[in-house]
Amino acid sequence: MPIARAVKRAAVRLGAVALTGALLAACGGSTDDTSSDGAGGKVTVTVDLFGSFGYKEAGLYAEYEKLHPGVTIKQTDTEDEADYWKSLQTRLAGGGGLADVQGIEVGRIASVTQQQADRFTDLRKYGADALKDQFAPAKWAAATGKGGEVLGLGTDVGPEAMCYRTDLFKQAGLPTDRDELAKKWATWDGYLELGKQYKAKATGKSAWLDSVGSLYSIMIGQEKERYYDASGKLIWEDNPALRTAWDHSVEAAEGGLSAKLDQWSPAWNQAFAAGSFATIPCPAWMLGYIKGQAGESGKGKWDVAPLPGGAGNWGGSYLAVPKAAAHKKEAYELIKWLTAPEQQSRLFEKQGNFPSATGAIEKVAGAKDPFFSDAPIGKIFGDAAKAAPVQVLGVHDQNIAQQITNALSEVERKGTSPEKAWSNAKKGVANTIG
């Protein structure tokens, strides 16, 4: 998604600022483990997420409620992770209006572990330390506080690939075989060259890719060090890998290869079914989103191929329990179940969210997806997950990324010079992180 999960993941969602009366009743500023909302010991566990986590869509909430007759799950969500995070910070500061379970995007998890550990429940209280071997080491370590606190359980990760429309490729005279394409776009230069060929031959108003922001995000996801180095020092301004991602994104913008769509906007959502773009950089969690937006008419028109430039990761998320949650024990039991290998593997098969639980990764290795022309998604994303770098996560990763993609949007949509846009990105980062 969770990236976006991130992408987000993402597809990204905001926990509503104005919560419903039922949610407010269930998640006031309680600090104990009260387990009853009313007569009969019934409990309403509230979940506040961003992006396409897919739990409701995959039927996992319904199954959990069936297995636990006294539990009702109520979820709130929206599409803008930046707004979600801002709202969450306001509620954490005030101590009220918090859900029992809060989603945390991977680009924010360092902020939780390094700056806000006192506002989240140490899940070791409920036995979470016994789950350590269930998760990939990097996924587990990222949500571990300075004192060993377990501050969240990992949901998905975001191994990267390229999703594309075979029907649009065919109309433009481009090859549609995923293995042949993987060779032709083994590098990002090769990908942009194919984009130029597509632009010259494509019919209608279809562009090569959705936005240069998604191109930047997928490229920077291939790097171990992006905005910070391993010592915690800010390096983004002088990071040559970041400038390479910027330069390729600028080239795509100035070459007219983009549909100029704001990700997660209504126009972007509609474009999946309308055929407004032929390719989209595609972390695993994007598969479920594409299915939802393209609908049944899109089945068989999409395919998935390995990513140009090697493996990377974009997005992924965690489920955390605020200290102010009304039902911390019940919340933990729910997230423990949702992040177990069995549920993670089912979620991948139904929604495309690639698991962070090691047992689940093995279970999905042979998965194919008929919507995506029977692409071997288990192998494509599994190989990418194994080869992706273990990324250095910083406190302000998501804030910096947002300022850079905002600046690229200026180049893409307003014709702002790259030099001016880069200067605006620097000012935006300075204003955002101080």
TrEMBL record:
<dbReference type="InterPro" id="IPR006059">
    <property type="entry name" value="SBP"/>
</dbReference>
<feature type="region of interest" description="Disordered">
    <location>
        <begin position="415"/>
        <end position="434"/>
    </location>
</feature>
<feature type="signal peptide">
    <location>
        <begin position="1"/>
        <end position="25"/>
    </location>
</feature>
<dbReference type="InterPro" id="IPR050490">
    <property type="entry name" value="Bact_solute-bd_prot1"/>
</dbReference>
<protein>
    <submittedName>
        <fullName>ABC transporter substrate-binding protein</fullName>
    </submittedName>
</protein>
<dbReference type="Pfam" id="PF13416">
    <property type="entry name" value="SBP_bac_8"/>
</dbReference>
<keyword id="KW-0732">Signal</keyword>
